[in-house]
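Both lines are given unchanged directly below:

***
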Amino acid sequence: MTSEITLFVNPTAGRGRGAHAAQPAARALRDAGFCVRTVLGEDADDALRRARDAVDGGTGALIAVGGDGMMSLALQAVAGTRTPLGVVAVGTGNDFARTLGLPVREPAAAGRLVAEALKGEQIREVDLGRVGEKWFGTILASGFDSRVNDRGNRMRWPSGRFKYDLAMVAELAALEPIPYRITLDDGEVREIEATLVAVGNGSSYGGGMRICPGARTDDGLFDVTVVGDCTRTTLLKVFPRVYKGTHLSHPKVTTHRVRAISLQAEGVTGYADGEPLGALPLTAECVPGAVRVLAPVPAP
């Protein structure tokens, strides 16, 4: 493996943590003997173009420094290639790193882990979800949670996570069940009313909400969590349980394990890894071993 690797940095991640985190991560990699080239972008499209250029140019690894948005960009560059991905998670949510059991907001430790994995050729091949040409590592969300994102993204004030808290309150006030048409990979079609449908390659979203707690990234399957037609009171009771992953036993919650799924609903946006995919209908497939991640293989 070449000693020349690429640090792919979002300087604004985690309210500026990305810029600070790049330094100890790069130091750990250089101390281990690697030649580190840093790639920034003027915007997301420019950053992705530069990352793809690095991959096409034969970089030994692409090391993403930032939050789940940066990990999402990095996945678009390395998925389906032999270039391994390193993860230095310093954003707000960091759910891709959580799913893989990697350090969160510890850039020096993450840098050392990546260096050790590169030297020992410790590489895990993990599954990804794919919608059209877009790859995702954690959750494809739709319904109540995606409507909260829609509303929050439209708000110019306040800034930060607080606006999404306000958006959640507003969506709760307007809560109504959504008519869904869900097609599973065996051809079964279900027409239901649901509050949300989450398609999980990973287990969590939103900074540790374990909406699909049983999801694994090495089984070639999605875990799908469907929260049925809830009242506001029921949703407020169920939602806190998502943080511990104990909501699956609630009678309004059903689950499926599938290789592919199609979701159809009027007026609903799909989000994957926190990034908008577009309006439903959307079809997602689980692609086994789609990305090579620099991390020790967990014990059975």
Remarks:
- The mean pLDDT is 92.
- The longest strand covers residues 282-294.
- Residues 141 and 198 are 5 Å apart (CA to CA).
- Residues 13-31 form the longest helix (19 residues).
